[in-house]
Each structure stands twice: as C-alpha cells, then as structure tokens.
Amino acid sequence: xxxxxxxxxxxxxxxxxxxxxxxxxxxxxxxxxxxxxxxxxxxxxxxxxxxxxxxxxxxxxxxxxxxxxxxxxxxxxxxxxxxxxxxxxxxxxxxxxxxxxxxxxxxxxxxxxxxxxxxxxxxxxxxxxxxxxxxxxxxxxxxxxxxxxxxxxxxxxxxxxxxxxxxxxxxxxxxxxxxxxxxxxxxxxxxxxxxxxxxxxxxxxxxxxxxxxxxxxxxxxxxxxxxxxxxxxxxxxxxxxxxxxxxxxxxxxxxxxxxxxxxxxxxxxxxxxxxxxxxxxxxxxxxxxxxxxxxxxxxxxxxxxxxxxxxxxxxxxxxxxxxxxx
Amino acid sequence: xxxxxxxxxxxxxxxxxxxxxxxxxxxxxxxxxxxxxxxxxxxxxxxxxxxxxxxxxxxxxxxxxxxxxxxxxxxxxxxxxxxxxxxxxxxxxxxxxxxxxxxxxxxxxxxxxxxxxxxxxxxxxxxxxxxxxxxxxxxxxxxxxxxxxxxxxxxxxxxxxxxxxxxxxxxxxxxxxxxxxxxxxxxxxxxx
Lengths: 326, 192
Description:
The complex is a heterodimer of chains A (326) and B (192). Chain A is of the alpha+beta class and 326 residues long. Chain A folds into two domains: 12-178 and 311-325, no CATH class; 180-306, no CATH class. Chain A contains nine helices and nine strands. Chain A has helices spanning 12-17, 38-50, 54-66, 72-90, 113-129, 179-183, 201-215, 233-242, 255-268; strands at 100-107, 159-164, 170-177, 186-189, 223-229, 284-291, 300-306, 311-317, 323-325. A five-stranded mixed beta sheet of chain A has the order 2-1-3-8-9. Chain A has a four-stranded mixed beta sheet with strand order 4-7-5-6. In chain A, α2 (38-50) packs across α5 (113-129) and α3 packs antiparallel against α4. The longest helix of chain A is centred in the N-terminal third of the chain and has 19 residues, at 72-90. With 192 residues, chain B is α/β, with parallel strands linked by helices. Chain B has a single domain (2-191), classed as Alpha-Beta Barrel (fumarase). Chain B has helices at residues 10-14, 33-42, 48-51, 85-95, 108-117, 129-133, 145-148, 175-191; strands spanning 2-5, 21-30, 55-57, 62-65, 71-75, 99-102, 120-123, 136-143, 154-168. At the A-B interface, α4, α6 and α7 of A face β4, α6, β9 and α8 of B.
C-alpha cells in the first residue's frame, strides 16, 4: 500500500459535460432583475463538494513526498490522494462532512440581494437533494435537523456575504467548512499571559503555534490556516475565513507577511503532529495572514483552521454572460 | 495487518497494541453526538443486544435512499471523537462495546474505560469519505432516524476490510498522548 498514488482527475471537458447548466447557458447582465443564479450556483456546489482545487492537491502530494515512504504519515497522505481521485471520478462528496456552506457574492449595483439570497438557498437545497451535501443545519437546543441545509430564519445557514463592487461582472465564491476543523479555530486576546504572547508579531506567532498544538489531528491535519490580526471578535473571524480562499503557493501581497507565513509554515512542520495527528513532517499546508485595524484597547488574533480537504471554488459571470469556474 | 470480524471477544482485544493495523469486517454501529448523550442518559435496553461485543463508529454519513427503499453510503469518514469524551467510557461499560472508531483520539477517561472493559480505539483517516464508503458493503438497519436526523442516527452497517490503526489500546497506550507530548515540547522551543 506504499506506492505513490498519482492524482488523476477527470479532464475539465468531462467535468463540463456533467454540468447541470445547459450547454451554452449565458447570463444577461444587462437585465440583473431577470437574472437567476440558482443553476450556476448548483453547478459550483457540485464541483466544490467532489473536486479539490489543484493547488490543494499539489500541496498534499508535496507533503506526502516529504514523508518517509511507507510511514503512517506517508500512507495517510496517499489515502487522501486516493480519496481525491475517487470523489472526482464519481462526483460524490470528498468528505461526509460537507460542511457549513459559506458564500461571498461580489456584484454590481442593481442586483437584488433578496432575490440572489433566495436563488442561492434554492441551489443549496437542490445540492442537498442530489446528495452532494449532507443536511448540516440543526436547531441548537433540540438538535432537530432541518433536513435541507436551511435555517428557517434565512439568517445563518447558508451564510451569504454580499459585497457591491465597481465592476459589471459577478463573482461568487463558496467554502465548505467542516465542523471538525471549525471546532479547532481559536481567537486570542493579546496580551495573553498564559502563553506569554504580547502585542507584537512575536505574540501573534505564539498564538498560531499554540492553536496548532491544541488542534493536534482533530481538525484533519494537514491544515490550512487563515489568520486575521486585529479587527473585532466578529470581523477578525470573518476575515480569517475569507483568507482561506487564497490559493496555496501564492504570495502574500505584503512581503514582510509573506516571509512570516513561509517561516512559520516551516516551523509548524517541525512540531511532529503530522497528517491526522499520526506524527510526521506535514502538519500544515499553508498559512494566510492579514493585518487589520483595531480598537486601541483590543488586539485579537483570530485563527480559522481548514482541514486538508479544503473545498472552495469561485464562479465568475463575465460581462458577455459567460460563466467560468475556478 | 490484523483481520478482525465483529463480534469481537475481550481476549482478541487484549492482544491489540498501539500501532497495529487492522482490517475490520462485519457489523458496525454508527453513533455520534446526540447518540452518545442518549446512550449515557437513557441507557435504552434495546441497544444492548445491538452493541454487545460490537464496534461503534463516530460517523455522520452522507446517505442515498435507493428506489427500492434500501440505503447506500456515499461518503462515510470518521468525525472528531473527543466530543464524546464525557460519555464514551460509560457507553463502553454499559453496552460492553469492544471498539470505537473515530479520528483525533480521545482522553484519559476513555483510556481508563478501554482498560477496564477491554476495548480499543481505532483510528480512521479523516476526510477519506469516498474511500471509506467503498468498504461499506450493506446498510443493515437504521434506528432513531426521524428523531436524530441522518447524520446522527444509529446506522447499522456491514463493512469489509475497513482500514484502521489502533491508536489507543486496552493497556493504557495512546499514540495521541505521545504525539501531543512531543509537539508540546517542540512548541516550547519554538516559542522561547
């Protein structure tokens, strides 16, 4: 079982041939009132739930190749590649925890958010019906499952963030955030005497190391970390999640932060936690850090942990109405 | 590689050590958050024959209902086990469970329960939903589906060569404790 499994994804032509969008489907962005996003968003979910982004696959393979051949860490990462191949070929969920569904919608002036919310919710309900998503929305105290991934108050699930921008195009990103990795996210308030973290970059580094050690394998390592420095308790966590949309291997726009991310990734991979906490040299696949402004009295470090199965995707509707997926 | 088939005897369990690789066959019962609270607080009698000498799997599957009314597992990897720490040892003792499958490992209380009753913790690869669903050969039955919802119901399934690693044995051994200790030591150096 220790031979290197090669990721063999189906071609993009095959993926497109299975699309729920009729061939040649186009949006009319000159008539935003008549636009229906349900089908393209359903197609986006079909892809994200069954196919990992290439940069994530590359990072998993790189991690596997860094482990000692035949070790438990090596075999585990190899099984992850097997699982990636299987889900992609079958168009079945990569993981049974298809996560909380989070959307970021960037749109021009004139799009009705109320209508878009309805259409996106319809897409999530349809994807759940198609068994691409598990019903993951339960009433907190009774534990009753709503059965279709909808919270009946139209507020929290699926989570939809709208942002109007100064462009004619529409872009919709989605993240399927598993519960296990969500549970190991952490928010620190600096100074933090328990870990000796002050209000500086050294303190931020200590928070991240502490969070990864506390997570062990429970967030399905190797993980991807989104880290927001500053903000408040809400905006910090919100930003930390959005950061995980960044592709692995791309540089942070701030060269100092970029160096920090790279150094800390190397350091965290000396912790010996490894894939699934079995031990090994692949504990994290990457870190994305961004600095925000804050209230003078508050200094939060908000850390979102994403599991190795980092299911994210973006659909773009261009001015000519064509839809593309990334 | 050790092949085990449920029901499992205490003697078979006592021979297992941390690091052993196991291929599990036979019946397995799925249970997670609501199920564990229910088992500890209500101790339902009807579950006893279902769980005795059996293995519990911490898993909330993606399931498909077939046209003939049967069920298929589409994705079925493990969920994080530590949430069941307050319940697990009691559940193991009450129902004479011989094994618990999950991910991420469990704590001291569970370890003591494993030693007392004679049970092991078996680790599956988290996130390998499709790969593990392939090893589920049949859905035998489901209990409390209406009450708990599909991710949390007691699914009774049959597995074939389900790949697992013993990470906590019935002698107090725990791979999770070792890795945690080593990483904490290394973190102290990195944070100095």
